[in-house]
Design a protein that fits this description.
Elements (H helix, E strand, L loop, with lengths): L12 H4 E3 L8 H8 L3 H4 L7 E8 L7 E8 L2 E7 L4 H23 L2
Length: 110
C-alpha cells in the first residue's frame, strides 16, 4: 500500500526545479510563478520522485528554444517551445507539460 507524502515532503515546482542553461538564479521566482500550475500534477508525489529542469537555448536569438524536462514518478516528459518571448515560451512549455502528463496518466491508469 502506498501512502501520500506529507505536505512538507510533497513535490512542488519550487522544491524540484533546476534552472538549466540560459536561466539565472535571480529569475527563479518568476519561472516558478509561471510554472505554478504544474503543482497540482505533483500533488501526492514525493519530493525525491520529481525533478523538473528548464533551460533555454539561444536566448533572445532567432532560434530560441525553451525545454522543460520532467521526471515525475515513472513518467519522463519533455516539453519544448520556440516563442520569441522567453516568458511566453515558459508558459507554453508549462501547457505542453500538462498535456503530456495528462496523456501519460490516461495511458497508465489501466
Amino acid at each position: 500500500m502506498t501512502t501520500k507524502p506529507s505536505p512538507q515532503d510533497a513535490a512542488s515546482v519550487e522544491k524540484c526545479l533546476i534552472l538549466g542553461h540560459g536561466f539565472h538564479e535571480d529569475e527563479r521566482a518568476k519561472v516558478c510563478e509561471v510554472l505554478h500550475k504544474i503543482d497540482h500534477r505533483l500533488a501526492g508525489v514525493p519530493e525525491d520522485s520529481a525533478k523538473l529542469e528548464i533551460g533555454v537555448k539561444d536566448r533572445d536569438g532567432n532560434d530560441q528554444k525553451v525545454t522543460l524536462e520532467a521526471g515525475v514518478g515513472k513518467a519522463h516528459l519533455v516539453a519544448t517551445a520556440e516563442d520569441e518571448d522567453v516568458w511566453a515560451a515558459v508558459a507554453h512549455v508549462r501547457e505542453e507539460f500538462l498535456r503530456l502528463y495528462n496523456d501519460w496518466a490516461d495511458k497508465h491508469k489501466r
